Amino acid sequence: MKTQRPVNLDLRTIKLPVTAYTSILHRISGVVLFLGLVLLLLALQQSLASEEGFLQVKQYLAHPLAKFVSFGLLSALLYHLVAGIRHLLMDLGLGETLEGGKRGSKAVLVISAVLIVLAGVWLW
């Protein structure tokens, strides 16, 4: 048995297919949404507690850092939505081939990028 196997731990040299990148981004966006939900629920709770709380949340959301966090959460939501629709279409039998998977992944990246840019324009 050969005990000295080549080990490639340099992530910069590993070439992943586009489908792997979209899958990894889909998981990351899900984690970001899960963690961001805590912030959104806290803001909702404070805004519903009183009129002063609502005004405080409104003031917080006007801050550039809060807008940046909101943009990040909105970007994660849009990407996760588009990638989720792709998964639903694959469950229906559309784009299950290797070439269809690559085209679907590229479409997810393009559509998500367009929606994220539009969301950024709307938010700022």
Describe this structure in words.
By secondary structure, this protein is mainly α. It has helices spanning 18-49, 51-61, 64-91, 98-123. It has one domain: 3 helical TM bundles of succinate and fumarate reductases, CATH 1.20.1300.10. The chain has 4 helices and no strands. Helix 1 (18-49) runs antiparallel to helix 2, helix 1 crosses helix 3 (64-91) and helix 3 runs antiparallel to helix 4.
List keywords for this structure.
124 residues, mainly alpha, 3 helical TM bundles of succinate and fumarate reductases, 4 helices, 78% helix, transmembrane, membrane, metal-binding, iron, cell inner membrane
- Strand portion: under 5%
| Helical amount | over 70%
How far apart are the termini?
61 Å
| Contiguous helical run count | 4
Nearest-angstrom radius of gyration? 20 Å
CATH class: Mainly Alpha
Subcellular location: Cell inner membrane
Membrane topology: Multi-pass membrane protein
Pathway: Carbohydrate metabolism; tricarboxylic acid cycle
Main location: membrane
Task: Summarize it.
It is found in: Cell inner membrane. The protein is mainly alpha-helical and about 120 residues long.
Question: Could you outline the blueprint of secondary structure elements for this entry?
Answer:
Layout: H1 18-49, H2 51-61, H3 64-91, H4 98-123
